[in-house]
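ok trying again, last paste got cut off:
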Amino acid sequence: MTNLTPATWKRIVRSYRSDCDLTPILLAPDGQRVMGEASPLDTLPLVIQARRHAIEESLRWGEPYVFLLAAGVISWAVALVDGQTLLGGACGGEVTCEDDRADVPAVAQHLAPWGSAHNRMRSYLQALPVWPQARIHTAADLLSETVYAAAPWKPTVWHKNRDNATQQRQIAEAIHQGKQVPNRNWPIAEERRLLLLLRAGDQNGARKHLNQLLAAMFLDSPRQAVLQARVLELLGYLIRVAIEDSPERVSLMTAHQQWIEQIIAARTFEGLSHVVRDALDAFLSEVAQQGLTRTNLHVRQALDYVNQHLTTSISLADVAQAAGISRFRLAHLLKATTGQTLLQHVKRLRTDEARRLLETTPLSCAAIASTLGFADQSHFTRHFRETAGITPAQYRRARRLTPA
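nice, full thing came through this time. structure:
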């Protein structure tokens, strides 16, 4: 099983219970309880199967998995992984949802229909806490953080799967947005922006921009051979410019040959996307190993500050102070290194976050405007339309009408 000592598990339970007032249980890969307080749910085949499925889905997506045990009764689980090996799972408990109250008698009848088991189930369900949906997802994330902070594991495949899932979501979003743009053209100029982000050491920004480029490639032609050729051309461009900048980076040419083989071997667009993302990360690592200049360090500090303060007012003076240079020097470095001014960079990030909130939360446009630091809803709407081409309300309606 998990090779988790009882002492370590007790620390996890104490920490999680302190934060969430729930007691987690340790699960085997098949969903059976291994450690933790027993409940009437533990021996029910339906619950064991649901927990096993939750562990598998958590591993697949590289994140906690929230699932429905019965109408109005919600639980969540985290896959426990060391390297490439699935060790088991942790279940964070059960609650009833405030937005969809459980019919306790009906749920008890569904889970344990006969005799004393039904009575115990009914008493157990009636004692469950009632939570809003947002708190459930917060507790699921906290369970993941608590377990992996305490356990001695390196969840390599968990992180890999999370990166894959994040990439596919970003590509799907970019494809959807691209379909709404009339007379779209292949964004050749955007390749240079990707290089600028790499030079700045902005891995998250580079990854997201790469995914937008991959979406544009797919929209331009979904044929696998064409996609492979476009990816090879993109990597070749990055390596050529990098070597022109610093001839000592000739080692990139050897690595490029290896990526060529993997790109040619990719049989699906998803597999191709994973390969090119890994190549991008390796490229960034190679550039960093050649020596991070103070210019890149200042830019990275500035970008980190912006990411951490996206929901507050951001001024050039504040960012320059965080980076340890003058406003004028920072403005020059940002433009030269990323191809954008500070204002343009902040606008792009806030629009991306606004899209996420419009898609994944019920927050009103006014609430999103306030959350992201806009002066008012009118300012937010004007900014969003300038960047995305449509109003926030139109964007939300379009996403809701799009088939999953």
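cool. The beta strands are 25-27, 33-35, 65-70, 73-82, 85-97, 130-131. The chain has a mean pLDDT of 79.
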